[in-house]
Amino acid sequence: MADIAMQIDVAGEPKAILEALTSTDGVAGWWTTRNETSGTPGAINRYWFPGMESTHDMRVIRADEDAVEWECVGGPPQWIGTRVRWTLMPGRDGGTVVLLDHTGFPAVDTMYRIVTVGWVQMILRLKEHVETGKPVPYFSF
Q: Which CATH architecture does the domain made up of 2-132 adopt?
């Protein structure tokens, strides 16, 4: 199994980050403008990306002030069964440390490498969106 792990400091409160991770408008602000996102455990979030025939479907496992966790239940075969976990911890000067872990990839292959680079870009956009309040989606429809 292969896992992706990263960390970033965000000059924003956990509440703002939680909103960016658990709502359709929030996710549209940094990741993809075409999405159906909920913070309700058990709900299925759906994410569309240009050039992809199917959605990436994520079951919400947890969504609270400390963490948001999804399990991939639909999308590319390498994603199925992986988990994406966002952990929110107190940072300096009222900010928040955001940990991103995407775990359970079957192998370090082309998909894994592309996803790793992709998450770096997405976490930087999440930071920018939360800190400025302006939308900076990577994928726009």
A: 2-Layer Sandwich (3.30)
